[in-house]
User: Which sequence fits this backbone?
C-alpha cells in the first residue's frame, strides 16, 4: 500500500500561489502554474521510484519459545532492505493485549543489509497469546510518498509459570543445612524419630538415645541416631476462583500461588516426600495424587500451567469435602485461597476445621498492600474517610478469621506476595523437623 504523505499535501496546496498569479498580476503567468504542477508530479514519480517495491523491505520476528510470567524475555525483529537506497522503517506489532512488548518504533536500514531490533516481551497472565502482524512503513527519499507493508506472523507464544525464579530459590534452599532434614542423618540433637544408625556415644549426645543392648554387645557405650521420617504426603490445594484472579504486585493471586507451589513441590520431592495438587473453585478443577520422585515435578508443572482463571465463587463445602474423601492417609494440606465477606469466611473456616480433624492444614492468604495503604492513608476529604473505614473493616475481618483458625489448630500464613515462597518452604521445613504430620 502506497499513499501520499503530509509533505506532498502541503506541496500540492502550495500550488494555489502560482495558480492565483495570472488572476492577480498578468494572464501570461498561467505557464508558471502549469510548470509548478508538472514539477510536483515529476517529484512524485521520482519519490515513487525511490520508495522501493513492496518486496524490497522484509520483516521477521523471533519471539522466545515461552515467556515466564512476571519476567521479561528478549525477542528480536529483523528488517531486511533489498534495495540499494537506505530507508528509515517505522515498526508496529499487532498482538494480544495480555502481552507487553517494548521495542524501538523506527530503525534505519542501509541498502542491501539487515538491521536487528532488540526488544523485550512480558505478560501478567498465563496462557497462549498471539503475535499477529508486523506493520512496516517507510518513505521515499523526498518524503512525498510512504509505503506500508503488512507481514502476517500468526505466532503463538505460551506464557508459563516462572520456573526460572523457582530454580533460583530452590538452589538457595538447597545450600541451607536445614533443608537436608530427612534427606540425610539429621544433625539436630533429639530431632527425628526414624532409626538411622548406631554410633559410639560422645559428650553432648542425648543419654536417652543410648542403646543398652548394643552397648552390651559392643562393650562400649552406643547411641541411636535418628532422622526425620520421610514419605509424607503433601497436597497443595489452590483456589482458582474469582478472587484469586485479582492482581497483586503485578501478578494475580493465583500465579503467586502457583510459583510458590512449584518451589514447595521441588523441596517436598527433594526431601523424599510425595507432592500433589488439588485445584477448585465452584467445582473441582484438577486433582493430582501425591507421588514421589523428581520426575513428578514435570507433572506438577504441566498441571499448574493448565489451571485457568476462574470467574465463579469458590465452593469450599464441595471442594474441601471432596478433598477429605480423596486423601486416604494423614496429609499436610496447604490451602491457598482468598475471602472477602463474613459469610464466605464462615463457610471456609467451617470446612477447613473439618479437614484438620485428620490432616495437618496450613492456611495461606496473601495480604493486599493496596488495601492496607488505603486503610492507613491520611484522609484529605470525606470520601477518603469512607474508603479508609471500609478498608479497615475488611482488614479487621481478615485478622479475626486468621486468629480464629490459628486458635483452633490451623497453621496460618498471612504474608505478602514477595514473601510467600520463602515463608511457605520455611513452614514446611519446620513441620518436617518437628514431625507434626
Assistant:
Amino acid at each position: 500500500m502506497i499513499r501520499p504523505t503530509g509533505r506532498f499535501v502541503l506541496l500540492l496546496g502550495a500550488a494555489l500561489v502560482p495558480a492565483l498569479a495570472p488572476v492577480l498580476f498578468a494572464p501570461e503567468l498561467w505557464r508558471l502554474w502549469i510548470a509548478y504542477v508538472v514539477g510536483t508530479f515529476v517529484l512524485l514519480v521520482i519519490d515513487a521510484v525511490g520508495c522501493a517495491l513492496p518486496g524490497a523491505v522484509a520483516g521477521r520476528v523471533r519471539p522466545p519459545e515461552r515467556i515466564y510470567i512476571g519476567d521479561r524475555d528478549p525477542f528480536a525483529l529483523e528488517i531486511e532492505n533489498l534495495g540499494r537506497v537506505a530507508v528509515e522503517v517505522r515498526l508496529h506489532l499487532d498482538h494480544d493485549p495480555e502481552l507487553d512488548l517494548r521495542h524501538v518504533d523506527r530503525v534505519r536500514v542501509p541498502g542491501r543489509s539487515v538491521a536487528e531490533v532488540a526488544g523485550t516481551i512480558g505478560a501478567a497472565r498465563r496462557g497462549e497469546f498471539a503475535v499477529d502482524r508486523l506493520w512496516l512503513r517507510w518513505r521515499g527519499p523526498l518524503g512525498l510518498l510512504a509505503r506500508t507493508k503488512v507481514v502476517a506472523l500468526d505466532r503463538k507464544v505460551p506464557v508459563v509459570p516462572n520456573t526460572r525464579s523457582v530454580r533460583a530459590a530452590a538452589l538457595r534452599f538447597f545450600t541451607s543445612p536445614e533443608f537436608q532434614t530427612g534427606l540425610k542423618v539429621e544433625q539436630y540433637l533429639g530431632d527425628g524419630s526414624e532409626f538411622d544408625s548406631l554410633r559410639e556415644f560422645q559428650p553432648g549426645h542425648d543419654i536417652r538415645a543410648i542403646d543398652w543392648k548394643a552397648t552390651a554387645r559392643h562393650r562400649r557405650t552406643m547411641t541411636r541416631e535418628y532422622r526425620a521420617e520421610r514419605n509424607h504426603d503433601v497436597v497443595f490445594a489452590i483456589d482458582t476462583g474469582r478472587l484469586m484472579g485479582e492482581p497483586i504486585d503485578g501478578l494475580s493471586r493465583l500465579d503467586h500461588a502457583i510459583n510458590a507451589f512449584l518451589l514447595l513441590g521441588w523441596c517436598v520431592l527433594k526431601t523424599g516426600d510425595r507432592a500433589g495438587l488439588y485445584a477448585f473453585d465452584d467445582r473441582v478443577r484438577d486433582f493430582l495424587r501425591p507421588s514421589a520422585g523428581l520426575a513428578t515435578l514435570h507433572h506438577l508443572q504441566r498441571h499448574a500451567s493448565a489451571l485457568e482463571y476462574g470467574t465463579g465463587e469458590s465452593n469450599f463445602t464441595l471442594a474441601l469435602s471432596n478433598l477429605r474423601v480423596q486423601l486416604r492417609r494423614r496429609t499436610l494440606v496447604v490451602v491457598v485461597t482468598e475471602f472477602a465477606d463474613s459469610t464466605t469466611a464462615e463457610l471456609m473456616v467451617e470446612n477447613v476445621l473439618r479437614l484438620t480433624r485428620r490432616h495437618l492444614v496450613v492456611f495461606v492468604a496473601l495480604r493486599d498492600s493496596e488495601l492496607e495503604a488505603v486503610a492507613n492513608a491520611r484522609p484529605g476529604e470525606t470520601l477518603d474517610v469512607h474508603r479508609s473505614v471500609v478498608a479497615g473493616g475488611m482488614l479487621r475481618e481478615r485478622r479475626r478469621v486468621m486468629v480464629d483458625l490459628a486458635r483452633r489448630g490451623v497453621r496460618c500464613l498471612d504474608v505478602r506476595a514477595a514473601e510467600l515462597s520463602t515463608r511457605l518452604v520455611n513452614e514446611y521445613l519446620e513441620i518436617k523437623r518437628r514431625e507434626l504430620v
The chain is about 35% helix and 30% strand. Residues 179-190 have pLDDT under 50 and may be disordered.
